[in-house]
Automatic annotation (TrEMBL):
Residues 360-389 are annotated as: Disordered. Residues 1-16 form the signal peptide. It comes from the Bacteria. Residues 367-383 have a biased composition (Low complexity). Keywords: Signal. This is Beta-xylosidase. It comes from Streptomyces humidus.
Length: 421
């Protein structure tokens, strides 16, 4: 469990999308007594993931860099009275629109002055593979000062130019194939019962022994029934066998296979005359973790100015001495950051994980994906299941806290909890 502290303000970094300009028709509030405004809007649309898979959720940010409309009245508008809403148009492989909204946040606007730049965010679920274009759409500027007023702006000749393109990959169905064994060990030449589910109906399925990551010469073939179930037996002779797998196709693959499930061949042949059988026992250990410290001081940022509050996670050491086929997963989640009369939401903490494996370890550590940690949590590092697992590993992460501009000055603290399973 690590305590994270910071102080200051951070603005979201600008996206890499292209700024586009397009003619816009804006209608000032009736009370202003002004005719419609036909001007030009400059905007951009960014996506948090430009290479998603079908089924993924993508967050889009619509930033109006230069609005077409001005403050329609002679009355100066104070800060934080504007609430923008809008639409992002989808095209290409997936059509439709994304509703986006922005916070009630703005710099002061003088009478008849230009409205400041503002951003709005929303999400959509990818439903088709291919290139999906993102174009800025209609938007509305709502002001809440003395009166509730709206200034809707529509794209004159929709759609507006494309600002960003998201290329979605097809998402193949998850591999649900699984097998179980009638026993976890046997004598050389004994048959072990193998049953399974999730295979392709009517497909031939190979049962095979494994010695670590290599297939042995012990194989058998069964056929999946109409419900994708298999039932058969495998005669195991190889004394080095560590597990049993089942797979469709000509060779093992993680997409069409199940297992390995641990299996041990017990050599019970009689000892020849004049010989002695020498045995030993390797005791299984535990899965544990330790950390280099329990506090992280993030860098300070200046009140009222953008900037990242950054730091590094205290190094976490994982030791897996259990033996067996199970891997492990190290996850983290964080609380809100509490400060002087204000909070910074947990969802504003992101990390870029890294991990290393000590030479000689049977498993290989995999770093989690860079992104938001938040209250729901994210993976810092993990190792996969396998016929031989274990070892020593270290996990680290670069941390970045997105502190809203003009957050009250002071120290803010949250607790990042790490869980090893």
């Amino acid at each position: 469990m690590l305590a994270l502290t910071t102080g200051g303000a951070l603005a979201c970094p600008a996206g890499a999308a292209t700024d586009v300009s397009f003619p816009t028709h804006c209608i000032p509030p009736a009370i202003a007594g002004l005719p419609p405004i036909d001007g030009t809007t400059t905007a951009k649309v960014t996506a948090d993931n430009t290479s998603p898979k079908v089924g993924d959720t993508v967050t889009v940010t619509y930033t109006v860099v230069t609005p077409a409309a001005n403050n329609p009245t002679d009355l100066a508008l104070p800060a934080d009275i504007m609430t923008p809403t809008g639409k992002v148009a989808l095209g290409g492989a997936q059509t439709g629109s994304v509703t986006v909204t922005g916070p009630k946040k703005n710099d002061p606007v003088p009478g008849k002055g230009v409205f400041p730049s503002f951003s709005m965010t929303g999400t959509f679920t990818v439903t088709a593979p291919g290139a999906i274009t993102l174009s800025p759409g209609d938007y509305n500027i709502h002001t809440s000062y003395i009166l509730e007023l709206d200034t809707p702006c529509t794209v004159t000749d929709p759609p507006a130019p494309v600002s960003e393109t998201v290329t979605a990959a097809d998402n193949p169905p998850a591999n649900t194939r699984a097998i179980s064994l009638g026993s976890a060990s046997g004598s050389p030449g004994a048959a072990v019962a193998v049953s399974g589910s999730g295979f392709t109906a009517g497909a031939p399925v190979t049962l095979a022994g494994r010695s670590a990551s290599a297939q042995t010469a012990d194989t058998a073939t069964v056929t999946a029934d109409a419900q994708g179930r298999i039932s058969g037996s495998l005669v195991v002779n190889d004394l080095t066998t560590t597990g049993v797998v089942a797979y469709e196709g000509g060779a093992w693959s993680p997409d069409l296979g199940a297992g390995p499930v641990a299996y041990v061949v017990i050599d019970d042949h009689p000892v020849p005359a004049g010989s002695q059988r020498v045995t030993t026992t390797v005791r299984a250990g535990t899965l544990s973790m330790s950390q280099a410290g329990d506090a992280v001081q993030l860098s300070a940022v200046q009140f009222g100015q953008g900037g990242a509050s950054t730091g590094a996670l205290q190094t976490v050491t994982v030791k897996d001495f259990r033996g067996g086929p199970a891997g492990w997963s190290l996850t983290g989640k964080v609380t809100d950051f509490s400060g002087p009369g204000a909070k910074i939401d947990a969802g504003r903490l992101s990390w870029t994980p890294a991990c290393t494996t000590k030479p000689g370890s049977p498993s290989t550590c995999q770093a989690g994906s860079a992104g938001t940690v938040g209250a729901s949590g994210a993976t810092l590092a993990s190792t996969p299941d396998g016929t031989a697992t274990g070892g020593e590993f270290t996990a680290d992460a670069q941390l970045s806290l997105d502190v809203p501009a003009f957050t009250p000055a002071g120290s803010y603290a949250g607790v990042l909890t790490l869980t090893l399973t």
